[in-house]
Design goal:
By secondary structure, the chain is α/β, with parallel strands linked by helices. It is built from ten helices and 14 strands. Strand 3 and strand 4 form a beta hairpin. Helix 4 packs across helix 5. It starts with 5 loop residues before the first helix and ends in a 7-residue tail after the last helix.
Amino acid sequence: MPALSARDRFIEYMRKAIDAKRLIKLTLGGPDSKKVDLQNVFVRPVKLQEGQRLQFVYRSATQDVTKNVTVEEGLARVNALLEADFRNGHLFATDENVTLEQRKTRSPLLKVERVVSARPPATTHDRVKHRPIEPKQAPWLHGLGVTDAQGAVCKGMEAKFRQINKFVEILQSLVADAGLAAPDANGRARALRVVDMGCGKGYLTFAAYDWLRGHGWPAAEMLGLETRPELVELTNRVAASHGLTGLHFRQGTIAEADVGPMDVLVALHACDTATDDAIARGVKAGASLIVVAPCCHKELRPKLKSPPGLAGALKHGILLERYAEFVTDALRAALLEWAGYEARVFEFVSPEHTARNLMIAAIKKHPAGDAAAGKRVRELAALHGIKRQRLVEALGFALPG
């Protein structure tokens, strides 16, 4: 009898967890962007009047779609999605976590991690939503002014709290897709070093540290870089007061500060070309994962040459501003692909929370110098008359003079 494939074994772990009522949730990530528009699929057990069901949440850039199906149909759906649309699966049960990584250039990898005292799975249909960061379990939120002394989210900070949790949801998927969850050669969880450039008050830096330390990286290190000394002093004080060893903040600029090696580079809402400086720092450091949310696209706006047919539209300032944002971020994504990364561009949080809601995530996949991506960079630059641009120059990419 032939041995079961890694995917078949993963489905068998899922079946056994369901039968024993041990399944908490399952996440599918690493979408094949050429085949599917989905970002993730989330699965959890629910108990309905009709009996035991599996609830599927299909998440795309614009909406979530929820469907409840029977257990057998759910198992078949997960198998089909892993076969055709997603590379990675992450199963969370009360006594174990199981990860499937279907790697393009190597054999699929199935990892089983035993866990202790995981909470029992909730199966009610209208349960309270579980968040990666729970306010009463993260006392540092109070030190940053997000919650009160009783752990309740402060009035006016609800959107910030939602943003914190959304960021962690995105980060946990990207870290897995980047292969950073893999153990080292001795079977130990690998160390992880994350640098957050332009971290401000450190909301997301603390959140990333909190989640990583509690989900497989007990020795994870976080460095927050910020130019304002009063914020550096505040964040270091809060980290120290809660005994968060491995979490540090330093004063400095994105372009010049000495931050050392990194596995993950984060830069959210760094203004204008500071985003380009951050991307360049991550690429040159060989970061496995780069995550940026650009802000204030000023550099290219006065330099753009209107493509044929758009001159009349771009005479309006608001349209020119938005078009310059599009061109800038499209150029950044193409440059990242030329540098050997798989680039993803998507909505970070809902537009009602912030107008600056676009995120670029890049996962290191190949050596730098992809010819097709380089051609896209040159064509995009030529179409808009771009001779110079900060990231182009920082990465040493040659544009025609």
